[in-house]
Write a structure and sequence with these properties.
Keywords: Oxidoreductase
Organism: Qipengyuania gelatinilytica
CATH architecture of the largest domain: 3-Layer(aba) Sandwich
Strand order of the largest sheet: 17-18-19-14-13-21-22
Protein name: Aldehyde dehydrogenase
Number of strands: 25
Bound molecules: nicotinamide-adenine-dinucleotide
Low-confidence stretches: none
CATH topology of the largest domain: Aldehyde Dehydrogenase, Chain A, domain 1
Family: Belongs to the aldehyde dehydrogenase family.
CATH superfamily of the largest domain: Aldehyde Dehydrogenase, Chain A, domain 1
């Protein structure tokens, strides 16, 4: 069934005469029609956000917290409907969609209590100097298709908590659940504080370059991140960029093969590998390489690839045709170069739905495209290493610096290795854990700035220092 969705502008659900289609990646059927906004709708949304900012910036921490808790409750109370819709548009299996929906509600609740308190720099007979954090104003939020709900909430919530208002653009591939949430929170958030508008990629630069938007918070590819930086340079907008990654896991020889095989598998194949911080290169010590690679490949054969709405599916389809074609191209390149496959590799391009079988490569060279590039699909290269120094050097040999992991019984050694990895996050003996209260961000071409925690909140504000000269004669 095709439902027509509306946008949230200035507290009202509004439609446009132009719409575009959203497709279920599991069967390529059209599942929703959404407004195709251009400059006029954007101008209206920004004007509403600007008006709302005048009063919202003066609200107390308690009032902001109440609104954010209302968002959290609206998501939680409607979680059943929302996770099913999320699977329909994004493709991820129901259990993973549930995690995202409850995760988004939990993130909102956890961040609702964050406050940016004043800092006293000097307090003596001569001077009182105080730093306060002032909300920057109207924020433009731009979101990708892999975790559409989580990414939307992680932009809306800190914007509201810090006293900003926001105009958010979901990915044109996955706007439906976000628009349903917009409807659910319409009367929870004061009119104009949260505006959600949909449109093609072309709407993105209009947001980036809009003269009445003060800051851009973007999650997406490094290529788009660079364009955003350029677009935002016109009026020196503040930017936070969460971009791509090519995250390495390093498995030391003391790791228990049976215990880590499944964990390594899911660190790479959750959400069909479409996670910025998924393990995309796994370096295994040569002493356990044969046993561990075999165990991972054997486990992979037990995981079902299919429609995420069906019970038993572990890995869903790729979210869209463009990404499906890219992943197929990387697999073909690996075949053309004669790299060895432990499992997978056979894609049926004529089938319905964007399915790629779980594909694991056996020790391809470091310069293979499938190793050097972010795959963003259910494809994982396993590589053998001899010394820890070599593993660290190979892990760091990337233009990206988002996250990484070390697997070892010796956690001190794990920390020692972590401190040498050039990434924003390193996990030891776990993966994909992101705390709502700790900064999350990338080094190198994985991004600029951070989201989450106090550091993330600060990016929605600027520092104002007020000094009072106490011994002045005036
Ligand atoms: P994308 O860059 O193609 O699109 C992201 C968003 O940007 C979409 O809403 C799109 O419409 C919009 N957009 C496209 N062109 C634009 C332009 N010129 N100006 C402004 N906006 C524009 O990314 P994607 O394919 O949706 O997402 C996948 C990428 O996102 C991967 O590289 C992944 O690693 C990255 N990602 C990073 C994080 C992180 O936190 N670091 C999290 C999730 C995804």
């Amino acid at each position: 069934m095709t439902t027509t969705y509306a946008n949230l502008i200035d507290g009202e659900m509004v439609t446009t005469s132009n719409t575009f289609e959203v497709v279920n990646p599991a069967n390529e059927e059209v599942v929703g029609l959404v407004p195709s906004c251009g400059k006029d709708e954007l101008d209206r949304a920004v004007a509403a956000a600007r008006r709302a900012f005048k009063t919202w910036k003066k609200t107390s921490a308690e009032e902001r917290q109440k609104v954010v808790m209302g968002i959290s409750a609206a998501i939680k109370e409607n979680a059943d409907e929302l996770f099913r819709l999320l699977t329909t548009e994004q493709g991820k299996p129901h259990a993973q969609a549930q995690q995202e929906i409850y995760g988004a509600a939990g993130l909102a609740a956890a961040q609702s209590t964050l406050t940016l308190d004043d800092v006293i720099n000097q307090d003596d007979d001569t001077r009182l100097s105080r730093t306060r954090r002032v909300p920057v104003g109207v924020v433009g939020g731009i979101v990708p298709w892999n975790f559409p709900v989580m990414m939307a909430i992680q932009k809306i919530v800190p914007a509201l908590i810090s006293g900003c208002t926001i105009v958010l653009k979901p990915s044109p591939f996955t706007p439906l659940t976000t628009l349903r949430i917009a409807e659910l929170i319409k009367d929870v958030v004061p009119a104009g504080t949260v505006n959600i508008i949909t449109g093609p990629d072309e709407l993105g630069p209009m947001i980036t370059e809009h003269p009445d938007i003060d800051k851009i918070t973007f999650t997406g590819s490094t290529a788009t991140g660079k364009k955003i930086m350029e677009g935002a340079a016109g009026d020196l907008k503040r930017i936070t960029l969460e971009l791509g990654g090519n995250d390495a896991s390093i498995v030391l020889p003391d790791a228990d093969v049976e215990a880590v095989a499944q964990q390594l598998f899911w660190s790479s194949f959750s959400n069909a590998g479409q996670i910025c911080v998924a393990a995309k290169r796994i370096y295994i010590h040569e002493d356990i390489y044969d046993d561990l690679s075999k165990a991972i490949a054997e486990y992979a054969k037990t995981v079902v690839v299919g429609d995420g709405s069906q019970q038993g599916t572990g890995v869903g389809p790729i979210q869209n045709k463009k990404q499906f074609d890219r992943v197929c191209e990387l697999i073909q390149d690996a075949k053309d170069n004669g790299y060895q496959f432990l499992t997978g590799g056979e894609v049926d391009p004529s089938g319905t739905g964007y399915y790629v079988p779980i594909t694991i490569l056996d020790n391809p060279p470091e310069d293979a495209r499938i190793v050097a590039e972010e795959q963003f699909g259910p494809v994982m290269p396993l590589m053998k290493f001899g010394s820890v120094e070599e593993a660290i050097e190979r892990a760091n040999n990337s233009e990206y610096g988002l996250a990484g992991a070390v697997w070892t019984k010796d956690t001190d050694k794990g920390v020692e290795i972590a401190e040498q990895l050039e990434t924003g996050t390193v996990w030891i003996n776990e993966f994909l854990h992101i705390s709502p209260l700790a900064p999350f961000g990338g080094h190198k071409q994985s991004g600029i700035g951070a989201e989450y925690g106090i550091d993330g909140l600060k990016e929605f504000t600027y520092a104002q220092v007020i000094t009072v000269k106490r011994d002045a004669v005036v």
